[in-house]
Amino acid sequence: MNHKWLRDPCFAIDEESCQRAREHQAQLTKPPGSLGALETLAIRLAGLQHKPLPSAQQVWISIFAGDHGVAAEGVSAFPQVVTGEMVRNFASGGAAISVLARSLGAMLEVVNLGTVNDPGELPGVRRAIIALQTHNFCEREAMDGAQLEAALRAGADSAAAAHAAGAQIFIGGEMGIANTTSAAALACGLLGESPVALAGAGTGLDAAGIQHKAAVIERALARYPNDDDALAWLGRVGGFEIAALTGAYIAAAQMGMAVLVDGFITTAAALAAVRINPASRAWMFFAHRSRERGHARLLSVLDADPLLDLGLRLGEGSGAATAIPLLRLACELHGRMATFAQAGVSEA
């Protein structure tokens, strides 16, 4: 399949807006640098949004749902039917991300890419069904070329809808029983790491369950070449929702829309996106440090400094949504604080 669009250039960052924002920060009534990361967030957003006074009020959240054939290996504490049941829960407003989206006034879209337990047509859910689930990647590649392209495009379509709606921040979330297994396998493939180092508890596995999960990933990795081809690894061991996230992150960067990356699974997708299109990294903010084993390693590889560390590991985009108030406060402080001249305060 033709994936050439993934390598198209990303939107240019406006260094002049960054510099004007930096100069503005220097005039605010505070010691230089005293607001730490809140200052640098505003300056980065200024360059991405091409204006010295940025905003983070318009937020779009896309939750991509898909089932995984590797669930047949017993790698999750929850049954596979939960994926479709949670799609219904998202639509009815009962999930954590649903509550957070309402609280933030964010647009929430759910994209069903294929679930074994299909909930059917639901309000607020876009059906982009690829198959009921990916193949069990211990037996064959998770996706063929057409399925991989469909998943990548589904993510790009969500980013395009967000951009058309005027979103300033794009959040991608995920739902799919066994998707921490898929994300860990993807990370192992891209980094050449051992599954023992990157496979974690996921939905709540005990030590024996984690050991079994690592063994399943080890068995799968032995089937495939030892290379670092991100697109190939997405097809080999990825999930529909992980590929959709990858496509969404790259498309958002190409359209000039900042991305707030959530936890372990979304960071694995972000790593794939950066390997495919390195310029997309500049458009990514990282919301939090997940408790899921392996996330710290991915953050380190991406040179990412997350905004929060709350012990979260739910997924759904919930950690990213929780970090939105920090981005908003950074913009408010940047845009509304008085300068020394306005306040009549003596400078240092």
UniProtKB/TrEMBL annotation:
Record keywords: Cobalamin biosynthesis, Glycosyltransferase, Transferase
Reactions this protein catalyses: 5,6-dimethylbenzimidazole + nicotinate beta-D-ribonucleotide = alpha-ribazole 5'-phosphate + nicotinate + H(+)
Pathway membership, UniProt: Nucleoside biosynthesis; alpha-ribazole biosynthesis; alpha-ribazole from 5,6-dimethylbenzimidazole: step 1/2
Active-site annotation: 316
CDD domains: DMB-PRT_CobT
GO molecular function: nicotinate-nucleotide-dimethylbenzimidazole phosphoribosyltransferase activity
A single GO BP: cobalamin biosynthetic process
InterPro entries referenced in this protein's UniProt entry, alphabetically: Nict_dMeBzImd_PRibTrfase, Nict_dMeBzImd_PRibTrfase_bact, Nict_dMeBzImd_PRibTrfase_N, Nict_dMeBzImd_PRibTrfase_sf
Enzyme Commission number(s) from the entry: 2.4.2.21
Superkingdom of the source species: Bacteria
Protein family per UniProt: Belongs to the CobT family.
Function: Catalyzes the synthesis of alpha-ribazole-5'-phosphate from nicotinate mononucleotide (NAMN) and 5,6-dimethylbenzimidazole (DMB).
The protein's name in its UniProt record: Nicotinate-nucleotide--dimethylbenzimidazole phosphoribosyltransferase
Source taxonomy: Bacteria, Pseudomonadati, Pseudomonadota, Gammaproteobacteria, Lysobacterales
